[in-house]
Amino acid sequence: MHQTFDAVLGINLLHANQQGADHNRAHFDKWGITCFNMMSSPGAGKTALLERTLAALTNELKIAVIEGDMTTDLDAERLRKYNVPVIAINTGRSCHLDSKMVAGGIHQLEHEYNPSDFDLVLVENVGNLVCPAEFEVGEHAKVALLSITEGEDKPLKYPIMFQEADCLLITKTDLAPYLDVDISRIEANVRQINPDVEIIRVSTKADEGLEVWFNWVRTQVLKPQQNSLSTAAILNVVHIH
Ligand SMILES: Nc1nc2c(ncn2[C@@H]2O[C@H](COP(=O)(O)OP(=O)(O)OP(=O)(O)O)[C@@H](O)[C@H]2O)c(=O)[nH]1
Ligand SMILES: [Mg+2]
Ligand SMILES: [Zn+2]
Ligand SMILES: [Zn+2]
């Protein structure tokens, strides 16, 4: 995990990040956009899930993607096939997206499109089970993915991600017959940390649970935005275009 206080600079990094996250959320709220932060360890299936989500929902929702990777735009290229705006952010040496990086993506969306046309922005975070959960980017919901190949104990060993999640997708369930894994044990471990989290078992390969996931997405998009009265004030105070 990163140190969140830089003693030399005297900056509380998480506090500064939070201000940027409030700024981003104010943009989303002004435009009527719901934003998800999609997080998991490398390879749990974030991009595969986004591919299926875009294929299923672009006819009913206007979606844009902000794609975070340390290097390359391989995932961004996979998602551009679905004819949605995909803004690629390379984080370089950073193993998570922070709110300032995502602000760059949001401002790009604002300049290139009419942002009020969009319903949903999906942020794919860098593959990492630890710090993305601590660095809010302005999302309305945190979606965590855990594949069944990672082990039943992961929610207990990396609790912050599972504590913070609004929705947990247990992925690659098609592999269960080949593994010594008890999926209900994973669920019990998650519930121990976060009793109220929505848990959905999915497989993009075997088409399992995807309709349940799409319905969860729909309910979140339809939820009234938390539209704070201070939206305009936040945008004025911290504008980092
Ligand atoms: N068997 C199986 N494999 C899957 C499933 N979903 C994804 N995969 C495979 O898992 C690998 C990683 O999937 P990605 O979607 O690239 O994972 P990711 O979380 O986006 O990876 P990073 O962006 O690198 O962190 C690929 O080889 C996928 O084909 C699934 O439901 N079942
Ligand atoms: Mg990916
Ligand atoms: Zn990090
Ligand atoms: Zn702004």
Automatic annotation (TrEMBL):
Signal sequence segment: none
Gene3D superfamilies per record: P-loop containing nucleotide triphosphate hydrolases
One GO process term, biological-process aspect: protein maturation
Residue ranges occupied by any CobW/HypB/UreG nucleotide-binding domain in the UniProt entry: 39-200
Annotated SUPFAM superfamilies: P-loop containing nucleoside triphosphate hydrolases (SSF52540)
Protein's UniProt keywords contain Metal-binding: yes
Protein name: Hydrogenase nickel incorporation protein HypB
